[in-house]
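Mods, move this if it's the wrong board.
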Amino acid sequence: MAVVARGVSKRYGATLALDSLDLEIRSGEIFGLLGPNGSGKTTFIRLLSGYLLPTGGGLEICGCDAVGQSREARRLIGYVPEAAPVYGYMRVREFLAFMAQLRGMSGRAVAEAVDRVIAALALDAVADRPARTLSRGYRQRTAIAQALVHDPPLLILDEPANGLDPRQIIEVRALIRGLAGRHTVLMSSHVLGEVARTADRVGVLLDGRLRGVRAMADTPDLEAWFLSLA
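Not the wrong board. Structure tokens:
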């Protein structure tokens, strides 16, 4: 399993943001975490990525304890937050090389990794342009490229289609589908249509609680199922 959560909870003072979450995400699949804003999706992602510590429960990433082996677990993750941050003053190739070095790579390994993700994300046309000049779609591709530069088994995407135009959404959807198998992809979204078109399985998170998990192949009407859980 790529991710195993057992009774994971997160409390902010009197607010219980995540309530005893039990979840398994299989290696190589695209898993969609669906829920409205404030449902606990970003809290779970921040727990996985090491930005937060759980209040209770256990969380494993590819067999590593996300708390007890935090450094090792974080090496297994590529993370793209909703804002798709990049350093605007850096050229795309320079930015990707910088991110590779931050992840402990050096010398020829950096150049090879950068070439690999530029090819995989179709960034050749903008590789030598400053990131600030990129369209939203290319910024999203660059953000995903930096998350993949160290070839992690788990890629986490928080609202990957947010702010994109229809053509860019289609391109990013195809890109994500192309990553399945080599990488496990966890994508969060509040847009039912994007999850339905992209994910292999989907979990619905409402008010900090996981209400159900279904395979998309067994869910002809995601909207109806979602509403039945609300």
